[in-house]
Amino acid sequence: MDFAKATNVTPSSNGFDAEIHSGWDIGGNANGGYLMALAARAMSAASRPHPVSVTAHYLSPGRPGPVHISTDIVKTGRTFTTARATMMGPDKPILELLGCFGELANVAGAVLIDAEPPEMPPPEDCVKLEPSPKGFPPPLMANLDMRMHPEDAGGLAGKPTGEPQTRGWIRLPEEQPVDAFALMLFADAFPPTIFNTALPIGWVPTVEMTTQVRGLPEPGWLRCRFSTRFITGGMLEEDGEIWDQSGRLVALSRQLALTPRNPTSG
Amino acid sequence: MDFAKATNVTPSSNGFDAEIHSGWDIGGNANGGYLMALAARAMSAASRPHPVSVTAHYLSPGRPGPVHISTDIVKTGRTFTTARATMMGPDKPILELLGCFGELANVAGAVLIDAEPPEMPPPEDCVKLEPSPKGFPPPLMANLDMRMHPEDAGGLAGKPTGEPQTRGWIRLPEEQPVDAFALMLFADAFPPTIFNTALPIGWVPTVEMTTQVRGLPEPGWLRCRFSTRFITGGMLEEDGEIWDQSGRLVALSRQLALTPRNPTSG
């Protein structure tokens, strides 16, 4: 299913109606990046065209079906509009968001880039993740074209590398354009970094995620790198960078997640 | 002035009354970390004792005087309570916040720490920042005990090192206890990393800041490191780590800021 269709929003009373589509999930729960993209699309429709920095707190799992996204403009400034939003499911809130929106086409070039895009083999030499009837890799992978760096794919095969890092290429299938909202999806689409640690593999619930979009990507493959430095007190961060084909950093992300748990234990 | 007194909040209709005290400012505008600490104190009083992850969007400068902090509980879960808040000044909103709160005393120890506290000379061999009658270092420094790593102090003397990094020690004066809210102050108290770049020195307005608190610090000096990797399109991030005397990471922060501008140009 096209990403644009899957994140379509329709104006309604006090916000927007939308639908969590099936096929964007992991074990029945919609991917967190997909949910953020859907809500940010509504916030943007109420404010300015591009997300600059959006924070989402994850309140309950998003299941396929209709949702309502209420939006409130907090402040309209000269450069940015700040907005908040609540994504409501049939019986409880799914996401609460706060973000600012602007026009990224207007931004000037880089002054300093003190980091390099991750070095990776070409996409055809990486590990393509495709949905498995067993549930993992998840159904989401049918809506993405994701290629993991072979050095980081050990965790998926039950052979963790010991390094909580995930690098890979990503794009939307069939040359769909990648907009700033798709970057939010990509920032939470790769397997968790900690699949490469000794922690048990399981659901890694996101508590909070902030994605900064620095620029609109050029068409083509995006290079991503996610890493975790601190797993303390049952919590961990996952920091992400997304680079476009021209070597420009287009997004930075950080999420706070809980260490893996059995999905059935809630 | 004591930090606890400077961040005191009093329940009132639909939230809390508080005061932005003078002496916590840079050029007349209250420090962003101080404002976040004050608002988070109110959010915590309405929810659970410790901030776990708090995001603030900065809408207008905070001037000394009374403010009202309205708080809304978004969700009360088993482990965390999610809340949002608005800090209103006399005529316009100053901060909009979203965060989750819990009980950090309950958290277990570290599973993985893939980083080290910054190496620094002892505090007495570092550069103590004290308020200058010329306005910089700012009045805020009278309410903090801050010692910058000598290698990073070049920018303050008009001799930028070229490396957008700020390391240093920090504590509250007169052995005041450091709670989770003081960590939010500390996460935004050091001179901007980019004072060590070729960019002109000026006001670096924070757009958004997220601080994660991972644990309550042991008494004593805290070690901090702030760094910037990407200055693009007029925006930059500043990533912070705060470590306690026992070598535990107690907070992670990231802010999105605009490149320096002349304070008078707004």
Automatic annotation (TrEMBL), chains A, B:
InterPro entries membership: ACOT8-like_C, Acyl-CoA_hotdog, HotDog_dom_sf, Sec_Metab_Biosynth-Assoc, TesB_ACOT8-like_N
Residue ranges annotated for the Acyl-CoA thioesterase-like N-terminal HotDog domain, each copy included: 21-102
Domain Acyl-CoA thioesterase-like C-terminal: 123-258
One Pfam family linked to the record: 4HBT_3C
Entry protein name: Thioesterase family protein
Organism encoding this protein: Halioglobus maricola
